[in-house]
Design brief:
Four Helix Bundle (Hemerythrin (Met), subunit A), alpha/beta, hydrolase, 6-stranded mixed sheet, about 450 residues, Rossmann fold, EC 3.6.-.-
C-alpha cells in the first residue's frame, strides 16, 4: 500500500542543539529536495544510502539559506520503505524552520501528521503493528531496562511469538477443515485430541505472555509513587536524593512544599514516577490547604506510597490518621532522621504494617536508600527482575487481545471435552487466530490505526 504523496517534518526536538534533522518521505522526496539543494554531486542520480554536503538555496532569490548534510535512502531500503531524504541543518529554531518552509512552499510536499512516518512503515510492510507501537515505547522509556525491552519488541520479539501461535492455530484449522470435507476418513477421537493438544499449547504460551503483563506495564509506565507524611519529615529531601538534583525546595519551615512535584527516577532498575506532596496536616493557611488536598488526591491514585516519619518525634495524631488510610495499600514506611535520637515507638507501626516494609534511613547522610530499593523490588518483582531476554507484554491493547484469544481457546477446549461437533469448535479456534492477527496488524481498522499513531510525536 504505497502512498502517492510526499511528506516532511522536523524529526528532532525543537530548540537549540548541535544539529536538527528534517525528514522527507515519499515518491517525490528526492526530486523536490534536489530543487533546493546545491552541491557538487547530483542527488537525482545518486545511489541509495549516500551522504552529500551542500547548501539549501532559495529557488526564487538564489540566496543561500543554510549549510547542510543530506542523507539519501531510496525505497524500499528505508524506514518507510519509500524514498527518504534526511536534511541535517544547524541546530536552532530559525535554521530548521527556514529549510522546512522552503520544502513546503514548492507545493509537492506537505507537512506530515503525528506518527505518519512510522504509520507508512507499517502500511508498506516494513514493520508490523507491534513493532510500530514499540517505537513510541523507545521514545518514552524511563529506564535502561524499559528501553531494552522496547528495543526487543521493535526488532520483532513479540511478533515472532504471535506468528508462531497463529501458525499452530492455522494448522489446527486446516486439520479441522480436512475432516469436515472428508468425514469418511475422520477418526473423531484423534481429531479431538489433536485440537485439544494444540489449543492447550497455544493457551500455555499466551498465559506466559500475560503473566509478564504486570511487570511489563510497570517497566513501561513506571510505578506512580507518592511520598507522603507530615511537614518537615524529609519528603523533599528524599526526592532530591533519589533524583540526585535539587528539584524541591528544602527548609525548616513547615508548609514549604505547596504543590505536588513530579519527577521520574529509576530505583534498582524500576522506574518510579515520584510525587513529592505537601505535608498532610490540618492548617488554616488557604494556599497550604489546597496543597494538602492535592496531596490527598495523589495519595488516592498512587500505586506505591512512601510514608515518611521523623524518628526524632513521637507519633502525631495526623500520623495515626494517615496510618489508618494506608491500611491494605502498597506502603513502605520510611523512618527518617536516624542520625538523631529515636523518640518514635516502632511497635505501634508494626501492629499495622508488615515489619519488612519498614525502612530506617537518614536522607541527610544518604543511608538506607539501598534498603529502600530492595523493598520496592521485593514488592513488585518478588525481589528480582526477570531476565531482559523475557518478552514482556505491556501495551493495554496487546493485553486485551491476548486475554480474548485465551478465552476463545479455553472455550474450544471445553467444547471438545463435552463432545460438541468440531465445526462448532472451529469457530472459537478461528476467533483466537483472528484476534492474534489483529494484535500484529494483519487485520485492523483505520480508526484504530489513527488512534495508535496519533500518540506519536510529529516527525516520527
Amino acid at each position: 500500500m504505497m502512498n502517492q504523496d510526499t511528506i516532511a517534518a522536523i524529526s528532532t526536538a525543537v530548540g537549540e542543539g548541535g544539529i536538527a534533522v528534517i525528514r522527507v518521505s515519499g515518491p517525490d522526496a528526492v526530486r523536490e529536495s534536489a530543487k533546493l539543494f546545491r552541491s557538487k554531486s547530483n542527488i537525482t542520480d545518486a545511489i541509495s544510502h549516500t551522504v552529500h554536503y551542500g547548501h539549501i538555496v532559495d529557488p526564487v532569490t538564489g540566496d543561500i539559506v543554510e549549510e547542510i548534510i543530506l542523507t539519501l535512502m531510496r525505497g524500499p531500503r528505508s524506514f518507510t520503505a519509500e524514498d527518504v531524504v534526511e536534511i541535517s541543518t544547524h541546530g536552532g529554531v530559525v535554521a530548521v524552520k527556514r529549510v522546512l518552509e522552503l520544502l513546503l512552499r514548492a507545493g509537492g510536499i506537505r507537512i506530515a501528521e503525528p506518527g505518519e512516518f512510522t504509520k507508512r512503515a507499517f502500511l508498506n510492510g516494513r514493520i508490523d503493528l507491534t513493532q510500530a507501537e514499540a517505537v513510541i515505547d523507545l521514545i518514552r522509556s524511563k529506564s535502561d531496562r524499559a528501553f531494552s525491552i522496547a528495543m526487543k519488541q521493535s526488532e520483532g520479539a513479540l511478533s515472532k511469538k504471535v506468528k508462531s501461535l497463529r501458525h499452530t492455530l492455522i494448522e489446527t484449522l486446516a486439520h479441522i477443515e480436512v475432516n469436515i470435507d472428508y468425514p469418511e476418513h475422520d477418526v473423531a477421537d484423534l481429531t479431538s485430541a489433536f485440537i485439544k493438544e494444540h489449543c492447550l499449547e497455544a493457551s500455555s504460551e499466551i498465559n506466559r505472555l500475560l503473566k509478564s503483563a504486570r511487570e511489563g506495564k510497570i517497566l513501561r509506565e513506571g510505578i506512580v509513587t507518592a511520598i507522603v507524611g507530615r511537614p518537615n519529615v524529609g519528603k523533599s529531601s528524599l526526592l532530591n536524593a533519589l533524583v540526585q538534583e535539587n528539584k524541591a525546595i528544602v527548609t525548616d519551615i513547615p508548609g514549604t512544599t505547596r504543590d505536588v512535584i513530579e519527577e521520574y527516577v529509576t530505583v534498582g532498575g524500576i522506574p518510579l514516577r515520584l510525587l513529592d506532596t505537601a505535608g498532610i496536616r490540618e492548617t488554616s493557611d488557604v494556599v497550604e490547604r489546597i496543597g494538602v488536598e492535592r496531596s490527598r488526591s495523589a495519595l488516592e491514585g498512587a500505586d506505591l506510597i512512601l510514608f515518611m516519619l521523623n524518628v526524632n518525634e513521637p507519633l502525631h495524631e495526623d500520623d495515626r490518621l494517615l496510618m489508618e488510610q494506608l491500611r491494605n495499600r502498597q506502603v513502605v514506611i520510611l523512618l527518617n532522621k536516624t542520625d538523631l535520637p529515636v523518640n518514635l515507638e516502632v511497635a505501634e507501626l508494626e501492629s499495622i504494617f508488615d515489619a519488612q516494609s519498614i525502612v530506617r534511613l537518614s536522607v541527610l547522610e544518604e543511608k538506607g536508600l539501598d534498603v529502600l530499593e530492595g523493598v520496592i523490588s521485593r514488592m513488585f518483582f518478588n525481589g528480582e527482575l526477570e531476565s531482559v531476554d523475557l518478552t514482556y507484554v505491556s501495551n493495554v491493547r496487546h493485553i486485551t487481545l491476548l486475554g480474548h484469544a485465551l478465552q476463545s481457546l479455553t472455550d474450544a477446549v471445553e467444547a471438545v471435552d463435552i463432545g460438541i461437533p468440531i465445526d462448532i469448535v472451529q469457530i472459537d479456534v478461528r476467533t483466537a487466530w483472528e484476534l492474534l492477527g489483529e494484535l500484529i496488524g494483519d487485520s485492523v481498522s483505520e480508526s484504530l490505526l489513527d488512534q495508535i499513531f496519533s500518540q506519536f510525536c510529529l516527525g516520527k
